[in-house]
Specification:
By secondary structure, this protein is mainly beta. It has one domain (2-236). Helices cover 2% and strands 71% of the residues. It contains one helix and ten strands, in the order E-H-E-E-E-E-E-E-E-E-E. Strands 1-2-3-4-5-6-7-10 form an eight-stranded antiparallel beta sheet, with no helix packed on it. Strands 8-9 form a two-stranded antiparallel ribbon. Strand 8 and strand 9 (216-217) form a beta hairpin. The chain starts with a strand and ends with a strand. Mean pLDDT is 82; it is low at 29-44.
Length: 238
Amino acid sequence: MAFTFRYIDSWESKFRGTFAGFADPKFSSGIRSNATLPIGGLAPGFMPGDTFENTYSTDLYDFALDVIHARGFCGCNFGMGFHSLVLNDRLNLLANASGVDASHLTKAKNKLFGARLSADGLLWSCGPLLMGGRGRIGIYYNDATHTIREFAPAVNIFSVAEAAEEQVSFVGELSLATACAFSCNCNGFVGYEVMFLEGIAIAPDHYNNGNVIAGFATVDTSGAMIAHGVSAGVNIYW
């Protein structure tokens, strides 16, 4: 049996610029160019020359409990288990619109619960050092929400619109790691992981999916995300 907890804490990308038009891809997302504005109640006040800052940020929290069958077919370990992920994706626009400071926050939240299958195998060993690879795939129930918040403190405007949708989502993972054994039931590892998520709500897809002045928002769960990078941690076996 194995319990896993992983997280990506506040990955973010920022862009600062000067407003040139609602179809300007730098203003629309700073990340993607498929969105055009206006955005809710802030749009009427924007004029060429106004300044803005776009911040795109993501948090990912990952919990799993797996049952592993050791030394299976061809020396691989196979497992199955319960997996839960929480993905928060935010796109925050801070701007000075015609002399009025204002903010527009687009937040997409995904709460995924499901089952996954896993397989891992030993690729190389030398004394206490081990190198192995792992693959996982699962199907999930996704409780997705979309929230829009607009705030202009100088004119005392604060507006919110929210929506929710249920979706079937998929998650796949590949990883390669090197471990050093500290004892018979504990080792430390460092490696590289790739996670692919399909059927989720992400913030850049929602710039046009609502209007706080009209009081509505919608959820788009056709998005996908690839998260990858170096990982490090400790494995404890019992």
